[in-house]
Design goal:
The complex is a heterodimer of chains A (about 325) and B (about 190). Chain A is mainly α and about 325 residues long. Helices cover about 65% and strands about 5% of the residues of chain A. In chain A, strand 1 and strand 2 form a beta hairpin. With about 190 residues, chain B is mostly helical. The longest helix of chain B is centred in the N-terminal third of the chain and has 23 residues. The chains are: A mainly alpha (about 325), B mainly alpha (about 190).
Chain lengths: ~325, ~190
C-alpha cells in the first residue's frame, strides 16, 4: 500500500457498515501506519474528523409524523387502486369530437371554395366594404381568422381582425404602465400563456420599494387568483402576490385560495405566503386557517405537512 | 454489501405495493422512513422540509412502483428519490440553504443538564455548519457514507455516478472537514 492510497482506503473502511467485510483492508492499513509516522498522524486526523461528524445526532421521527404519513400512504394506495381499475375508453370522446369537427370544417371549406365565383368579393354579408389586399398589407397582421361556408348566393366569407403591432414603452413606475399590466393580467391577454407571461413581468418589475405594486395590479392579481380557470395561471398569480408586501386585500385572497382553490400547488403557495406574513404579525384568521388545514384529514398530505410546519414556526 | 435477505424482503414489499397491498407500503415505510428522514434533514437542515421529502418518497414509490427495474437495491432507489427531492427543494426554496439551526427542533437528550444541552447543541451546530459549507455533491456522498453506512457501490447507484467519483467526493469532503476540525500543520503529503 502506498501512502497516497491510504486515506481513501481508510475512509472506505470507515464507511463500511459491516467491519468484518473490510477486515483485511483494516489490517493492511494498520501495518502501513505502524511503519509510517506521517500516515499515522494523518490517519489520526481523519479519524478524529470522522468521529466529530458523530456529534450531529440523528433527527428522531415523531409519532405525529409517522401517523400522518401512514394515513397519506393509505390514501395513495387507495388512489393507486382506483387508477388501476378505472376502465379505459377505447376512443376518448374528446378525440372523436375533435375529429368530427375537423372533418366538418375541412369539408365545408372545400365545398365553399369549389362553388365560389372567380371574381373578387365586393361586399361582406353584413354589407361592410370589402378590404383590398393592398390595404391589408399596410394594415398589419390578421388575427382571429375564420371562414364562412357558401351562402345561397354561393359567396364564402373570411372574417378577421386587422391589427398592427403596437409597442408601448414606459418605466415600470409610470402609472400608465401599471394600468396596462393590470389590464393584461385581468382581461387583455387572450391565452393562459400570454396571461402567465404578463404575471411574470409584473413579478419581475413590481413589489420592490422603488416600484410597489399599484392597487390596480394587486386587484388584477387577486381576481386572477380567485377566478382564473387555469391552475397554472392561478399559481403564477399567487407566486406574484407572495412577492408583494402583505396587505389585508392580499391576505384575504390567500385565505380564500387556501380554503377554496382546488389545486394543492396554489394552496401550498398560500400557506407559505400566509405563514411568512404571520411570522412578523400573527393574525387570528391566518392561524385558524392554517390549523384547520393541518388537521384536515381530507387535505393533501403536502399541504397538511406544510401548514403544520408553518404553525410551528409562528410565535403566538 | 447489503444483507441478501433484507434485499429480497425489500423487493417482496415492492411487489406487494405493485399489487395494491397497503401492508407492503406500510412495512417499507417502517423500514426506511427514519433513515430517509435523517438523510433529508442533514441535506436540508429543516425538519418540515425533511418530513415533506420523506412523504414524497413514499408517494412516488406507490405511484411509480412499476418503474423500478430491479437493477439497483430498493434502498438505493429510495435514497435516489430522496436525493432528487432534496435537490428540487433546495432549488425551489433557497431559504433552505440558509435556514439557521434555530429552526430545527433539537433531538431529545434524556437526563442532560442545561450546560450539557448547550454544549451538545453547539457541537451539533458546528457539524451542520461544516456540512453546509461542502458542495452539494460532496455532502450527499459523505452523508450516505458516514451516517447511513452505505457501501461506495450503493452510493454510486443512489447518486448515479461511478464508484471512483464517490471516492473522490468523499475524500475531498473529508479533506475540507479535516482542515476545519483539526487545524494545524501536517507533514503528510499525498504524493509520498
Amino acid at each position: 500500500m502506498e501512502c497516497r492510497e491510504l486515506i481513501a482506503l481508510a475512509l472506505e473502511a470507515h464507511a463500511a457498515a459491516d467491519p468484518e467485510s473490510t477486515g483485511p483492508l483494516r489490517r493492511e492499513i494498520s501495518e502501513h501506519t505502524e511503519a509510517c509516522p506521517a500516515c499515522r498522524e494523518e490517519l489520526a486526523r481523519v479519524e478524529e474528523t470522522w468521529s466529530r461528524l458523530g456529534e450531529d445526532p440523528d433527527l428522531p421521527m415523531t409519532p405525529q409524523f409517522r401517523r400522518r404519513t401512514l394515513a397519506l400512504i393509505d390514501d395513495e394506495m387507495l388512489r393507486a387502486r382506483i387508477r388501476e381499475f378505472r376502465p379505459a375508453r377505447r376512443f376518448p370522446r374528446a378525440m372523436l369530437q375533435a375529429a368530427a369537427l375537423l372533418l366538418a370544417v375541412a369539408g365545408g371549406f372545400w365545398v365553399a371554395r369549389a362553388s365560389a365565383p372567380k371574381s373578387r368579393p365586393d361586399r361582406t354579408a353584413s354589407g361592410s366594404p370589402a378590404v383590398s389586399p393592398a390595404a391589408l398589407e399596410s394594415a398589419g397582421s390578421l388575427s382571429n381568422v375564420s371562414y364562412r361556408p357558401a351562402d345561397p348566393q354561393g359567396r364564402i366569407g373570411v372574417s378577421f381582425d386587422v391589427t398592427s403591432r403596437q409597442t408601448v414603452l414606459g418605466k415600470p413606475e409610470d402609472p400608465r404602465m401599471a394600468r396596462l399590466f393590470a389590464y393584461l393580467v385581468s382581461r387583455g391577454a387572450q391565452t393562459s400563456g400570454e396571461k402567465s407571461r404578463a404575471i411574470e413581468l409584473v413579478s419581475t418589475h413590481y413589489g420592490s420599494e422603488k416600484t410597489p405594486a399599484s392597487p390596480d395590479v394587486v386587484r388584477a392579481l387577486t381576481a386572477t387568483l380567485r377566478k382564473d380557470g387555469n391552475p397554472g395561471v392561478r399559481k403564477k398569480a399567487a407566486d406574484a402576490l407572495a412577492g408583494f408586501q402583505m396587505t389585508p386585500e392580499i391576505r384575504t385572497a390567500f385565505l380564500d385560495a387556501l380554503r377554496n382553490d382546488r389545486n394543492p400547488g396554489v394552496r401550498l403557495v398560500a400557506v407559505d405566503a400566509l405563514a411568512a406574513a404571520a411570522k412578523d404579525s400573527p393574525d387570528a384568521k391566518t392561524i385558524e386557517s392554517l390549523r384547520e388545514k393541518a388537521f384536515d384529514p381530507t387535505e393533501n398530505g403536502f399541504v397538511r405537512a406544510k401548514a403544520a410546519s408553518a404553525l410551528k414556526a409562528i410565535e403566538f | 454489501m447489503r444483507d441478501q435477505s433484507a434485499s429480497a424482503e425489500d423487493r417482496r414489499l415492492l411487489e406487494q405495493i405493485r399489487r395494491g397491498e397497503t401492508a407492503g407500503a406500510a412495512e417499507l415505510f417502517e423500514r426506511y422512513a427514519p433513515a430517509l428522514l435523517r438523510f433529508a434533514d442533514r441535506l436540508l437542515s429543516d425538519r418540515g422540509l425533511a418530513e415533506e421529502v420523506t412523504q414524497e418518497v413514499f408517494v412516488k414509490v406507490i405511484t411509480r412502483a412499476h418503474q423500478y427495474d430491479g437493477r439497483a437495491e430498493v434502498s438505493s432507489w429510495l435514497f435516489a428519490i430522496a436525493a432528487n427531492a432534496c435537490r428540487d427543494r433546495r432549488r425551489r426554496e433557497r431559504r433552505a440553504t440558509i435556514v439557521p439551526l434555530e429552526g430545527v427542533p433539537e433531538p431529545a437528550h434524556k437526563g442532560e443538564g442545561a450546560e450539557a444541552k448547550l454544549l451538545t447543541r453547539e457541537r451539533r451546530e458546528t457539524v451542520r455548519e461544516a456540512l453546509n459549507d461542502l458542495s452539494e455533491e460532496q455532502r450527499e456522498a459523505l452523508i450516505l457514507a458516514r451516517y447511513h453506512g452505505l457501501p461506495y457501490s450503493e452510493i454510486a447507484d443512489v447518486l448515479g455516478i461511478s464508484v471512483g467519483a464517490v471516492k473522490t467526493r468523499i475524500f475531498r469532503a473529508v479533506e475540507t472537514l479535516k482542515a476545519r476540525f483539526t487545524p494545524g500543520e501536517t507533514t503528510w503529503n499525498a504524493a509520498n
